[in-house]
Amino acid sequence: MKDRVERYIYLAMTAIVCWHLALWLRRAPDDVFRVLLYPHKMAVGIFYHMDLFYHAGTGYLASDYGFAIGRECLGSNFILILFAMNACMFLKYFEGYRRALWWFGCLAGASALGISVSCIRIIGSIPFAGHPKFPMIHVIFGISLYFSALFLSYVSLRKYFEAKSGSDECEKAV
Amino acid sequence: MKKLFKNKPALYLVGLIAVPFIWYLAANLINGSNAYTFAMAIVFAGILAALLLLVWKLPKGKLKEILEENEKHPKAAYYIITVVIMLLLPLGGLSINQGFTGFGGDNGTAGLFGDFSHPLFYIIAVINGILMLLHPAGNLRLRFLLFFLKAAGYTYILYFLVVFIPMLPLGAVGIIFYGLGIFIWAPLAASVWQGIHLYKEWAALSRTWGHKRIAAAFAAGLLTLPICMAGVFWGDKANFYAAAEYLKGQNYEDLQPISLTRLKRTLVNMKGDLQPTRGLMGFNNGNTPIISDLYSRFVLDGRVVSQNNIMALENLFLDAGHDLSAVSISDSALVNNRVYLKDVSSNTVYDEDNNIYRTWVHLRLVNAAPVSNGEYVAAFRLPEGVYISDYYLDVSGERKMGILADRRAALFTYSRIVNTRKDPGLLHYIGDNTVELRVFPFFEKEERTTGFEIIHSRGFDLKIDNLEVPIGKELPPLDLKLDGAVLLGPEDKSKLKSVEREPNYYFVVDCSKSSDTEWLISQIEAYAGLNGIEDAKVLFADYRVKVHNLADMHEADIKADHGFNLNLAVRKILDEESSDSWPVIIVVTDNMPGAVFPREIHPLSDKYPESRYYYLLNHNLTLTPYTYGDNRAQSPVKAPIVSTVLDYNGTIVPAGDEPELVVTGSIPYDYKATGSQYNNAVLLEVLYKKSLTGGGPDSLELIRSSFRSRILTPLTAFIVVETPQQEKELLDVQEQILNSSFEPALVTLDEPPLLACALAALAVLWVACAGKRKRMRTISSPALR
Fold first, then answer.
1. Is the ipTM of this complex over 0.90?
2. Does domain B497-654 have CATH number 2.60.40?
3. Which of A55, A66, A142 faces B731 most closely, judged by CB atoms?
4. Is some CB atom of chain B closer than 8 A to the CB atom of A37?
5. What is the DSSP string of B548-602?
6. Which of B97, B136, B679, B779 could disulfide-link B674, Cβ–Cβ 3.0 to 4.6 Å?
7. Cβ separation of A77 and B751 shorter than 8 Å?
8. What's the pLDDT tens digit per position in B671-704?
9. What is the pTM of this model?
10. How do the domains of chain B map onto residue ranges?
């Protein structure tokens, strides 16, 4: 009973933190985004030899104004969803202070993985930037990539924890 | 608190006050707000909360008495309060505001809190106040009509409430120290007083007319003034675009009559519009708060009209007498112009990828004066087929590369920076193939370096100030394959035959308000007699143009009025001139600086290379030549200057050593980038010239194309600014100028929305668990055991 209550508290805390992060990221100062979006600029520079310049309020702009990497491109939605999914679904494998460590680890890991996936999304989309149906291509590519990354993350973590603990909720259900 | 929610009138008051409050917040969210406006909103919310608490604490009987007074005849106190709140305070406030016109020495300030000087502000206040005093309890029809009119007036009151919300704390301070602050609170008091009155009227009338009809009348009343305003805006918009056509002069056959009253209103609202950030109070006190903003958005479609164009319109229609040639982008009181060019060097390389020469021209500039704030300004001419592709300025030992920006935004930013003494450098076209370089500031005896890159196909001498530098003259001319154009060099021209065409004389007479047309006509007669001219056309130009022959010019019905539209007259002449002749245009005026000069007319004037000039007739009957390209005056001459011309497959080109770009094929409608930067530059030039003569892509498309090909065009400018803040300001102004049309060009790489991500996560969990269940069922199935 105590464990269940504790898990509910973690779930509520995750929801609150996600909510606040989402709100904060919408209104965060420009300089924060300048730093957070920097990996995207680096990735574009490495793959396409393009030098993006920062325009306050907009984000990193291509020098020919062909495309912009703004605050909506950070991948924050993916980071929050990945964090929420991992933090909530695998809490049962931890107890005590390890549970808190896992929770914080999920946040840090989701941030790192989220920005990496977002960089891949940007790099993959840039060649289509001039296409008339670019928004559709970009969204489909983004959702496919997110789905794959979430799936890989969830399945690999579950396999890892199952192998480690020898128990499985689904197996119990069966 | 439960009591409050049970108290219906109190709830009604909450709703009544919440409407303008939410309106105000929404307007701020849409227009962009600062911490100050939000702080004011919070203060205002606190004040409203205190008011509500007061209402809540009123004895029930008292509140009921106030709200249900409608059936009785109002007491004398009602009339006294109404006269004070609805008449004396609004009229007093408007008068005091107008009394502060020019407050702080700023000519643009039309009042302390904005321009409320229009008579309608006073008239509506008086009518609304009188309506509030009328109380025909017996006649329900008249009362219904009055209810509608009072609702219409309520929009006016709510407008002032919204405008004055940020001022309310100031009003409190004003009450303590001067007693005048009460006027700032007047809109709040009036909106509450009229709101209570309308509520009571609603309650009384709804028993007869029903809630639906009363609600419809109330809504119609509230919308009356905004709809009237929208109607006026609509008319002003059409009038402004018609007026702009006179300035452009392109469609001179189809020009519409202009209402000067409407145009004056538009020009007043346009001024002071180019602000990169909102003022402290959330609006500019030179304009009418909110209305000017809406007006600008609607009439101008959110575009910004340059100060130069506003002045040109004022000259053209109001004969305002601005000297447009004296307009400078830097304040002569702040800068000294004793900076000179010490040395020019160049470095040319062959760009194999583009099959073109690239030359960096480096300039060393020195401030000769023992004072700071030196500005270097130089104009130089580039030959045809030479384009600028980059620019730099050394700032504090660091080489800063130029940003290619919209020309209007760059000029605006440069002007602001020069007047605040920071480091800008600017490179932009000021006429046909004429480029201007500006660098600022120079400290006493300081030396600075700047430079630009040009792409070209053959060598030439570049003359800047008094120095001349050879550019790739030792290199052989490149054989270029241009799409739809050919660059004729001296060796090509030497093979062409010369042709002679007859000159046709045109006299353009200034018919503006301040001109003496009789005397100008006598000048024409004197010149024609002296030079034996018998057949010529005479164009009488105010903002329109009337054409007469030399013989019957005395019969012209001339009414000296408005300004002098030289642009329209010259454009009409050049456009209508036959290809077998060439025009000699002689301007007859006593006030040349007040004329609206021909602008971007070289695509038309290039058809007549016999003369690069039009002429001003001087008092002594000599002629002052003005170049079509940049309207610069030359030394007076006795007769028109005539050059030899050649025939290249039907296209007339000037003789001489200067290369000439001739369009040979059909011009594409849109810009489509090619693999070669030089080809892109040629295409941009051809499309730009096409756009000036009507047709071709719009200017926004050309600006974007210039950015993409990184080629300086007459619509763009290279600018170097010192700080990231200035860079941000430049881009903000550019966005404002290019407006919404700029947005679609910018592809943003947004991630999928949160809902889509959440659905993806749920799908992952479902797929993963479903797969697992299926696997486990397979394992536990007896058939497989």
1. no
2. no
3. A55
4. no
5. EESTTGGG------S---HHHHHHHHHHH--TTEEEEEEEE-S-GGGS----S-H
6. B679
7. yes
8. 777 778 888 888 888 888 888 776 667 777 888 8
9. 0.60
10. 1-67, 69-304, 497-654, 754-779
